Amino acid sequence: MADYIIGLTGGIGSGKTTVANIFANMGIVLVDADIVAREVVSKGSEGLKRITTHLGTIILLEDGNLNRSKLRQIIFDDDKERLWLNALLHPMIRTSMLQQCKDAQSNYVIMVAPLLFENGLDRLVNRTLLVDISPELQKQRTVTRDAVTAQHVENIIGSQASRAEKLSKADDVIDNQGEISALKCKVEALHNLYLKLSSKPE
């Protein structure tokens, strides 16, 4: 059971998934907010039942799964519905993430959350780790990776907490503007620190 939680975050294209996977390769359990957010609205879940009761079966696909694009359209067009959905799902996501952290069989656990600070998830963790790169590099990497426009990436960056704000809040920062080999060394150094902080022998 892991009692020590590291909150891992970083803007789009920063490489937080790469960092998370390096921790995972060293035997650390990952709890990913994006995966949990999908689980709480999966077919047959309480979350999906509540959404269907509230909005009707128009938000279901023929196979009974959530029609994500339809739901996105509804909450994009109506602030009240967006607030209702957030009030329903955020507590479910937090509860599930904390349970998964508690059940984790590693010395500490990494909670991966793109909106760690924005959604107040940093209050649930013992320490925060930010994967940081310049906005220019964010744009360059994301445009190349996702085949989207620079404007699209700028809109996403603009909707998140500023780089300065995240840097001021993070306990630890990994500068990911270099090579993967340098990144692995940085993660290994933090891994050793987190083993000490979680005060359990490896």
Features:
single chain, Rossmann fold, globular, 9 helices, 11% strand, 202 residues, alpha/beta
Describe the structure.
It contains nine helices and five strands; from the N terminus they run E-H-E-H-H-H-H-E-E-H-H-H-E-H. Strands 2-3-1-4-5 form a five-stranded parallel sheet, with helices on both faces. Helix 4 (68-77) packs across helix 5 and helix 6 crosses helix 7 (150-159). The protein is an alpha/beta fold. The chain starts with a strand and ends in a 5-residue tail after the last helix. It has helices at residues 16-25, 33-39, 46-55, 68-77, 79-103, 135-146, 150-159, 163-169, 180-197; strands at residues 5-9, 29-32, 109-112, 127-132, 172-175. The chain is globular, with a radius of gyration of 18 Å. The mean pLDDT is 91. The protein has two domains: 1-28 and 108-202, Rossmann fold, CATH 3.40.50; 34-105. It is an enzyme of class 2 (transferase). This is Dephospho-CoA kinase. Keywords: ATP-binding, Coenzyme A biosynthesis, Cytoplasm, Kinase, Nucleotide-binding, Transferase. Pathway: Cofactor biosynthesis; coenzyme A biosynthesis; CoA from (R)-pantothenate: step 5/5. It comes from Shewanella sairae.
- Main beta sheet, described? 5 strands, parallel
- CATH level-1 class of the largest domain: Alpha Beta
Taken in chain order, the helices and strands follow as EHEHHHHEEHHHEH
Instruction: From the alpha carbons, calculate the radius of gyration and give it in angstroms.
Output: 18 Å
**Residue ranges: pLDDT <50 for 5 or more in a row?**
none
For this structure, the CATH topology of the largest domain is Rossmann fold
Question: Would you tell me the structural class of the helices and strands?
Answer: alpha/beta
Number of domains: 2
Residues in β-strands, percent: 5-15%
Can you name the CATH architecture of the largest domain? 3-Layer(aba) Sandwich
- Strand order of the biggest β-sheet: 2-3-1-4-5
- CATH homology superfamily name of the largest domain: P-loop containing nucleotide triphosphate hydrolases
Helix content: 40-55%
Number of helices: 9
